[in-house]
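Q: For a teaching session next week I want to show students how multiple molecules come together into a single three-dimensional assembly. I've collected the sequence lines for a complex. Could you give me the predicted structure tokens for the whole thing so I can convert them for display?
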Amino acid sequence: MKFNYKILKNLVSAIKSREDLAEKLESHLFEVESVAGDVMDIKILPNRYSDAACYYGLAREISAMYGKDFNKNSGLKSLYSKNLKTKGRSFKVVNKVPNLCRRISVCHFSGVKINSSPKWLKEALESSGIRSINNLVDITNYVTLETGQPLHAFDFDKMSPSMNSGQVALIVRQGRPKEAVETIDGQKFKLDPSVVVLADKKDPLDIAGIKGGKKAEITNSTKNVLLTAGNFDGVSIYKTSRKIGLTTDASTRFSHNISPELVGWGMARATELILELCGGEIGKFIDNYPKKPQKNIIKFDIEKFNKISGLDLKEKQALDYLRKLGFLVNGLLVIVPLIRTDIEIFEDLVEEIMRMYGYKQLKPKPPLIFLKSHKQGDEINFKDRTRKILVNMGLSEVYNYSFSDKGDIKLENPASKDYSFLRHSLESGLIKNIENNFRFFQRVGLFELGKVFSYPDKESFMLGIAIGDKKEKTIFELKGIIDQLLSGLGLTDYSVQDENLERLKIKSNDGVLGYIRYLREHGGKISLAEINLGELFHKAQDEKEYESISKYPSITRDLSISVSLNVRVNKIMEIIEASVPQYLDDVDLIDSYIDDKLGEGNQGLTFRLVFLSEEKTLTDKEVDEEFKKITTALINNIGVDVR
Amino acid sequence: MNLEEIKNKAVESFNKINDLPKLEEWRVEYLGRKSELTNILRSLAEKSIQEKKQIGNAANNLKKELENLFEQKNHNLRYVSFNPSSRGLIDITRPGKKIETGHLHPLTIVENEIKQIFSYLNFSVIDGPELETEKYNFDLLNIPKDHPARDMWDTFWVNKKRGLLMRTHTSPMQIRYMEKHEPPFQIIVPGRCFRVEATDASHETNFHQFEGLMVGERVSLANFKFIIAEFFKKFFKKTMEIRFRPSYFPFTEPSVEVDVKFSSGRWLEIMGAGMVHPNVFKSVKYDAKKFQGFAFGAGIERLAMIKYNIPDIRLFFSGDLRLIKQF
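A: Of course. Below is the structure for the complete assembly, covering every listed component.
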């Protein structure tokens, strides 16, 4: 919110300079976003709209920072409470929604002269980015800047009187279905009962607390005026303002639940300025104040203050800060000014005192605590280990958005069409990453750890791994990586089974932990795996156990076979392993080829078999027998040709 | 052979030499103990003074000349036009091979560092759900419904009717943790959060935060100042000047903004913090008269950007290995 330095300086003569003021404001009150010439852009905190989003409020705070008192408001109060003469036309005020309109003050002025504003007033408005209209409207806007109370003036002569009595009434009521109001800027808004309006006997005159209406607008020919200041329920204004898509200075202020006490100050100050700048005479005045707020009294406790803050202040010192800010202090009882809607509990007073004393003077103190052993969730450790293993195998980590263009769960208010779902897989993000990185790298190995979401509101922690190579197929490397990862994480009991021609399942016991995919659409140059890390965490056994190392040498035999291309290698390996030769220690595929000599539709495969005994040195004869069992099993089961 | 002939022959064969073994042969032949030149020099003893002077000078000059030639070529072959393969050696001054290694994402690195520093300070690390409920994200944190304070957190809604949303901060974990644990404790919660933002160099719809919470019977704001000063000192590897500014969060009272001063002399806003609001303690059924504590939250991207001088927050989600491989 923009404020003029000169006006502040006028109110608080103790202010030293712009820089000093900006620094003080930042240390004790609000952030100053910019200082441009005399215009200071001050960021009002959301809980301080009631008391500090105006010149008087700021001046009160600034005076306290400079150790001075500020008592501008008391003068205004006396003017307001003066016995006002009741000249001019009679009118009445009807408040039909006392829960939503906590106060409405109305005053009649007759014989005003609408003119352009004096220079000082125009300038004051300009600093805050408000366009000058005419003296009366400018006064209402300026008084809002001074006191924080939004005001509105109606042309009395344009208001429809009652058909029966001929009397003008200002009615605060709910909008009616099919009713509409045209605002002063010419926009039309449809009304309904959730919208509060000020109305005459016939029509709504404005959207209460948000924007004035066209019907009784002040123009150059206006002679008689109803000046109004109201206070409206914050939630109601906030909802209406959002619903009709209209946010104004007034709606922002009311949304923050400002105090109805401000009404009095706003009316008094505006009255003073109208009589001074527009002439005319003051008439009947009505103050409808159905819900006067209760005084909030908080008992002060210096010990508690020091315990929360970690400071060591004396009671008098602490209470003095509150006094300077306009709190009444009676012994240990602190009476909160009614405009301080932000002050509810003792802790709020702690903040007031601390910020005025200065956080700068708060000395760091090591906490006194019982030592407890630090805990990092096992699952968090598990993720860290996963990352470490993958990085050690040369993969790099990426982060992708949790939003995607497909998924089970749709966002109600997505940022864009491409990101309108919660991702249900890490796949598409990783594929996109690989394609993008192919512009700069020949080989790309990536992984991501992240949440995915599935219907209706399930959240799972997944690991995605993708390997791309512009020239080579990468699935076997990926499978190797998965093997290393799973055993590195302590999962020994798992298998990789083919689900279809392009997809393998990673299974452990009965559960599927994830899958490995050969991306045919990418010519196999990208392959990808996704593993449910949450599930894996529950299955993986951390502890490894020593297996004795054989003292005897191993014997290696290569087995070359020719077999139909329809027979898949995992089937062959299953048979080799299932033939359970006593001394078979390891099987690996070391070569595969296609050759005319093998005959059409056949493939040549070479396995390396390692035989080992823990008890003795194997003889060739023993190995030959084992080898024979394997070849027999292969021939009998799938009719391979052993070469 | 006279000196003239020796010289011609030596120079002629010298010019054909291009490796060290040949050069050595040449040296033996023309400068060795059995070479003709050595013979001539040796035989000088038997010659007259006149001859000694005449031949001796010329022979010594020739010897020097040949020795110079030898030294020069020896140096050249050995160090300048060295042919490594001939000696089973290679030029070890060539640059090292580029080794492909994996890299953690910079946000992971920063998050790990944060976790580690707070672990040293006896904080426990926990995490929580990203798909949250309105109750935990707002209501129980003393953020009233239909209040403009909620504008501070522009929310991605999954199902507004059912109160399902993407958490806008890590603070819901304060509630979830306190519901299940009794003070005293101190925890940090790193995690991903979401806010409706127009993305630019410093705003992202997906981002990461870490939340801190310490509760006990006498945990004060001065204690927070100590903890956070320790954190920044370890994180930036030097003592950092920090300051608190008044702020407002519905779930803390008092509330402060924490700024850190950098060598450029600029103060940067790094985190929001404060003393836990008694209403928050009430929502988890703690005795608000007995317990007090502080809470804080900061953006991990922001810390990473400052630490590594990364100019644009969007880079973190680009998947660009040219960024990631730098860390």
